[in-house]
Specification:
Strand content: 15-25%
CATH architecture of the largest domain: 3-Layer(aba) Sandwich
Order of helices and strands: EHEHHEEEHHEHEHHEH
Structural class: alpha/beta
Shape: globular
Strand order of the largest sheet: 2-6-1-7-8
CATH topology of the largest domain: Rossmann fold
Number of strands: 8
Number of domains: 2
CATH superfamily of the largest domain: P-loop containing nucleotide triphosphate hydrolases
Helix content: 40-55%
Radius of gyration: 17 Å
Oligomer: single chain
Distance between the termini: 16 Å
CATH class of the largest domain: Alpha Beta
């Protein structure tokens, strides 16, 4: 079974997707972590600058997104991890620098194509819950259950500031709001796999909902689907 959760940045989809996977005993796939891994490798293994990312070389993308070299794994104890050439790079992927860089490379067609194949390969071997920007619209258009999780810009900005504070990173509301607006613009306007509500997806606005409420709504929907399939 494949469950997709799409939505804009800081809508809470990664947290809910991970929890839903744990509830169901599924394999959790963070598509965003794969984009972060690509960005990290370009910046720190190929010495790209932020400006260089707009002119990424095909050979570098092919090298760093080689499935034999870049591996994504998940289990309930270790959670999601990414290794490159056998070295775990996960701890390097959650920084403001990588946040920005991953957003910039997400518009590169070859990056999206390579990562799409990687995600589909995982989906062939596991029951998965996957979150991202185009999981239900492009990567798994025939997913068994699709969700689109969103929230008001101001709510997302406040959540992001609070999350960064837990990591001892200072970010003000105005800065968070501006960065999210820019991310939303890039996601909505890119030519390849723009952010859309996938066909057949259930839209959940979490602006006035907490994590547990969103999780309960998704879990009920999936359980109803499983029950319906068993009856047929």
């Amino acid at each position: 079974m494949i469950i997709t959760i799409d939505g804009p940045g800081v809508s809470g989809k990664s947290t809910v997707a991970r929890l839903l996977a744990e509830k169901l005993g599924f394999y959790y796939v963070s598509s965003g972590l794969l984009y972060r891994a690509c960005a990290y490798l370009l910046l720190h293994k190929a010495s790209y600058t932020m400006q260089d990312l707009a002119h990424t070389q095909q050979a570098d993308i092919e090298r760093f997104l080689d499935p034999a070299q870049l591996r994504y794994t998940y289990d309930t104890f270790h959670k999601e991890q990414v290794c490159y050439q056998g070295v775990n790079i996960t701890s390097h992927l959650k920084t403001p620098e990588i946040d920005l860089a991953s957003s910039l490379i997400s518009s590169i067609p070859l990056v999206r194509t390579k990562l799409m194949h990687m995600q589909r390969d995982i989906g062939m071997h596991h029951d998965i819950v996957i979150d991202g920007r185009d999981c239900g619209s492009v990567v798994f258009p025939q997913a068994d259950s699709k969700f689109f999780l969103t929230a008001d810009l101001e709510v997302r900005a406040k959540r992001w500031v609070a999350d960064q504070q837990k990591k001892a990173i200072t970010l003000d509301i105005a800065g968070a709001r501006h960065e999210l607006q820019e991310r939303d613009r890039r996601d909505l306007e890119r030519k390849i796999s723009p952010l859309v509500v996938p066909e057949g997806a259930i839209v959940i606005d979490s602006s006035a909902l907490n994590r547990d409420q969103v999780l309960a709504m998704m879990e009920r929907q999936v359980q109803d689907l499983v029950k319906s399939e068993r009856e047929t």
